[in-house]
TrEMBL record:
Protein family (similarity comment): Belongs to the transglutaminase superfamily. Transglutaminase family.
This protein's name: protein-glutamine gamma-glutamyltransferase
Cofactors required: Ca(2+)
Family matches, as SMART domains: TGc
Residues reported in the UniProt entry to bind Ca(2+): N388, D390, E440, E445
InterPro entries registered for this protein in UniProt: Ig-like_fold, Ig_E-set, Papain-like_cys_pep_sf, Transglutaminase, Transglutaminase-like, Transglutaminase-like_sf, Transglutaminase_animal, Transglutaminase_AS
Active site: C266, H325, D348
EC number from the UniProt entry: 2.3.2.13
Amino acid sequence: VFLESSLKVTGIDFLKSQNTRQHHTDGYNIKNLVVRRGQPFQVQVSLNRELRAADKLSLRFGIGENPMKNKGSLLSLKPEREDFNGWKISVVKKNGKECLLSVTSSPHAAVGKYNLHVKTGTNIYKPENGVIYLLFNPWCEDDVVYMANEAQRKEYVLNDTGYIYVGSAYSIYDRPWNYGQFEEFVLDACMYLLDKSKLSLIDRRDPANVSRAMSALVNANDDNGVLLGNWSGKYINGTSPMDWIGSVTILQKYYKTKKPVRYGQCWVFAGVLNTVMRCLGVPSRCVSTFDAAHDTEENLRVDVYLNERGEKLNSLSFDSVWNFHVWNDVWMKRTDLPEGFNGWQAIDSTPQEQSQGLFQCGPCPVKAVREGDVYLPYDGKFVYAEVNADRVYWVVKKVNGKDKYFKVGTETQDIGKNISTKAVGQNRREDITREYKYPEGSKEERMSMQRAYSFIRPSGMVPRSGYASTVQTLSGNTQPLIPKEPVTKTGLHLEITNTEPLHPGNPLEMAITVKTSTPGNWTIELTGSCQLQYYTGKVQANLGTIKETVKLEGTSEMQIPLKIAPDAYMKTLSSVEDEVLILVTAIAEVKETNDKLTKETSMRFEYPPITVQMPETAKLYNDFTCAFIFKNKLNVTLENCKLLVEGLGIFKMTTFDQGDIMPGRIMKSEIICTPTRLGEKKIVAKLISNQIKGISTEKGIIITE
């Protein structure tokens, strides 16, 4: 009797370059095989002899600490056998002792790291680098993160650079950000977060659970997550939030130390969460909302208190309006919700309010925000208020030694403006306000508002000013009224502008324009104030006030200048470590009619640019020189200048100390670059100093073979 030698595996080839190209994972800087779920990949198994019909061969995929078949954490796959948990393998071809196998994971498989062993009879072969990373698959129609449009997949999954929009509604600007989801250790950091989340294997299948868990883990509150938030203006024992230019350094440092990285503010949280979601394969984008309400009481109202000089007071309100707030949208089918709420879902990792006991927020369907279905999970009420609350202004006056509050205006169309994200395939801002809100005053907006109110407003609260729900008409139909800006008898209107560029070191020259538009003689008491404030709405310094009596007749206007000398603000500007905005508030009261109107506008300082000089194209592994040039066109010396530069696939994050740059002086720094990756790459540069926190720029280069 001829005894066959027992079948043994002598080697396995993961065919990395072919598989990763097909799975759009060739960008990951990692030794292991990275593939996406629901899509076949191939492995070549080498044996000690030919494979025969009677031989038993199985691939075993285990996930987690102690994989077991009955727990679903150990999958044992045999060729041509019925599938196991939606996974299957088949023999593509046999060639002597070589056997080419195709493995297709389930499109609903748990995402994470799988250990591959090959079992032949009683022998088990454990390959080196046998850990396979399995990600979500936006290219697979059966995956809940499926996205049909290739240009969108390129932007929202594969683009490792982008912009985050900041500033104020009056002056929006783009801050370049390197997501760097393919850089070394970033995928491992995301896998570490998945393990840390303690999600069950079943929960790991669903991007809704995964994105909610990641929104909690990107902030350090509750769980020793990635980033510690700090809005104090003092960052001695860490990195100022203004000094980051991307997520890579943050995630690498976190993965190395397993301790929260100091410090983040909203755009840093959103930038890192965007990296994590793209890295795991969920389409994701950073979303900036200007004049975003932080409504702690869920009553859709944010109260702003002013003193008699028209200056905003910090202390009285827990509610606030942030000049901008950045969160993320992730793309998925919501299998846990009724029909109609698939697509973009808002998630937010900035620690603002607890949700189910943790600092986490979302996923909340963007369509639910638009339709007013704020009861749907998760956190619909909070997100709805961020973009829809009213702003009510109160003046606090001392009457007989007691504080009395007088209402001086309500803004109903002011919150949640210019909702912005980077356009697909283009370096420009795309306005997505329409995805979050119906047009102000439209029939759909009224219906959405009524629906939201039925879930949010405690009964007996007055509806939002200027808003009447229904009016009986003669025919018995109910006809909703359009909410309008409260129209005054005088047609009073205020506008706030800057009349000269707002350069640090120069006088700040602004103007308040008072307009009336109805017949009559009007006497208007105008109070105006100028303050410096953080983007969270917290006032840092009072710079000056004006009080004027303006006389207008009929349709006319008058421009009242408001001018602040450099001495009044330069000291504050160089003592805080954040970027501050200029806040101008105006209160107008008409003597004859007692009409009151309040308006505020935030503006940012304007800075000279950094220019980047380098070739338009370069060859792989061939050095080129990149120069950064900055001319200080301001009237002040910029102290302690630092230039931060990073180019993914070109060079790691580098900091140049530039000392002080006097007015009129030119700074020039050069760096020798060696490109290690093909395609369109970007170099990002940022200059920070005591006086200015954020001059940034970026430039693209194409790397060819």
